[in-house]
């Protein structure tokens, strides 16, 4: 069943990424962008009958209900999406599917992450005893052995030092370099061109900080072969997208960004269990999205691709069909990836230069695609844009989601 033209994104709310959010709670951040998205569309709160959120630290259960209560909503459709960096993109098509199913008419998709800030001037308190006690608080109770973690990560990744994303994506870069001869300079060009885009985006965390190839290549190698400036910097922020039915979309304040196609794929969790390193779910999700939209990658005027690391952009370019296998390095060398270039890529700056505010970082690729389709990007606006592709990636190439947006249904 196709979602083409069923729904459109009509309202956006987004906070500029910051390093720390201080005392603001995650509910405060979500409330701010939710209000902004509703007002941006020209809607009112009573119009909202759908809500999609993601797991939130500190809220162990009933997350949609907690957020709905805080916002003063009583939705007829509520969903929790947990796809890592693919969560934002995954939210949009679920909202459209709920609208198609008649579960709701206008659905808010909310993402956000807070970072309170480093602890300063506080002395560490001695930990309280964790010795189990009897039911009256006295004496000793029978100890309960902790459950052993039998997940694939614990069995096959962690014993060999596979403890974070840096290692996984460095392995991908090393493998790709071995297979196809990718150079450091080719990877670095992705970061440099995206920084030029960020310099045209006042909301970007690196808006006023130009970047050169020499800067990238001279930055510290964090996990060979990846340099520090090829890796996202953690930040905080929030973003919201209001998705509504075709009937309501024509009444919105801004031109609708029509959802024309969507795709999704989950291939593994543990990196050791990835079925392949050169044929991931990126292609599966992209092919589904383009087929549903009835278009080809070459028809797209904006590629808004998840960029936790420069190597992820190169892999996605190939698997999504923008260039042939093994040609991504030459492709980025041959194209100007800026908003005014021959192949506009991550025109908001990407997470490498816009910022990676947790879940809202993945959503930033979606909001930029929508904003560009609506013609609201100011100096970085792509001329005569008709189609945009937005991509999300979760884990270490584990979870993928792709969306095609268009100016026409």
What are the main properties of this structure?
13 helices; alpha/beta; 11 strands; Peroxisomal Thiolase, Chain A, domain 1; about 400 residues
In brief, what are we looking at here?
By secondary structure, the protein is an alpha/beta fold.
Topology readout:
Elements: E1 7-14, H1 26-41, E2 50-53, H2 63-71, E3 77-80, H3 87-100, E4 106-113, H4 152-157, H5 165-180, H6 184-198, H7 213-218, E5 221-223, E6 226-227, E7 237-245, H8 246-249, E8 257-266, H9 281-293, E9 302-304, H10 310-319, H11 328-334, H12 350-353, H13 359-373, E10 387-394, E11 399-406
Parallel strand pairs: 2-3, 2-4, 9-10
Antiparallel strand pairs: 1-7, 1-8, 4-7, 5-6, 8-11, 10-11
Helix pairs in contact: 6-10, 6-11
Given the structure, what is the number of helices? 13
Please identify the structural class as seen in this structure.
alpha/beta
C-alpha geometry: globular
Task: Output the strand order for the largest sheet.
Answer: 3-2-4-7-1-8-11-10-9
| Assembly context of the chains | single chain
Helix content: 25-40%
Average pLDDT works out at: 92
Give the count of structural domains.
1
CATH superfamily: Thiolase/Chalcone synthase
Unreliable residue stretches: 120-137, 139-143
Element order, helices and strands? EHEHEHEHHHHEEEHEHEHHHHEE
Radius of gyration: 22 Å
CATH architectural grouping:
3-Layer(aba) Sandwich
Annotated CATH topology: Peroxisomal Thiolase, Chain A, domain 1
What proportion of the residues form beta strands (DSSP E)?
15-25%
Briefly, what CATH class? Answer: Alpha Beta
Secondary structure: number of strands: 11
Distance between the termini: 16 Å
The largest pleated sheet is described as: 9 strands, mixed
